[in-house]
Amino acid sequence: MSQKPTDRDGVQYGTTRIEYAIERTNRRKTIGITVRPDQSVVVAAPKGTRRTRIAEKVRGKSAWIVQQRERNSACQRNASRQFQSGETLLYLGKQYQLKVTVTPTADPVSVLCYQGKFLAQVNSSLGKSERAGVVRKALEAWYRERCTARLDSCIEKHAKQIGVTPVSVQVREMKSRWGSASADGRLRFNWRIVMAPKPLFEYVVAHELCHLRHPSHGRDFWRLLAIAMPDHVSRCLRLEAIGPSLTI
């Protein structure tokens, strides 16, 4: 039976300090890392494993740990979100506060982004239980519109550099991807990517445009992407880290 964590340590990952509890056990042959819902990190290691070896393992998994914590935080925020005044939502990497106003003139709900806030007007004929749903739908529609508008200019900029011309561009709901490119030249993007900082938005665009020339992730694809966006690796890692938080 595993012993309860009794030892603690930590490693530095950029500006983030990752503290973890060490659980020694006779039942394991390898080191395992768990990020719990409360954001705590537990490392299960065979008895006798050196602390330096454990620290090395945690350091190597730091990006994954940060990503899991972001995912946990996003799930907790979404579970408690009621789409009421005071809550915040991301747009281009910045937090915008939501302000909901109930009025008899709204038809039945409208959303705009103004002076650092999302302003939502909801028709007073809607019951309180209905408001959260209509505000969420209106916000998603707003994000889709802004994503489409930004894609037009961003694609035009990078397509010339990469030397491709998309046949069509769609903004849609995507569960596990930020974008995709088909063999016939059609691009599809997850509307949530407009919640990310501009450099990450551009990274996804450039990535998919490169796929119009090189469908697979082969050497030629990565060479072309490196020419179009020399810092694509750091952008990709950043997107992996914050990706779970890009949702309403």
UniProtKB/TrEMBL annotation:
CDD domains: M48_yhfN_like (cd07344). Pfam families: YgjP-like. Residues 29-239 form the YgjP-like metallopeptidase domain. This is YgjP-like metallopeptidase domain-containing protein. It comes from Botrimarina mediterranea.
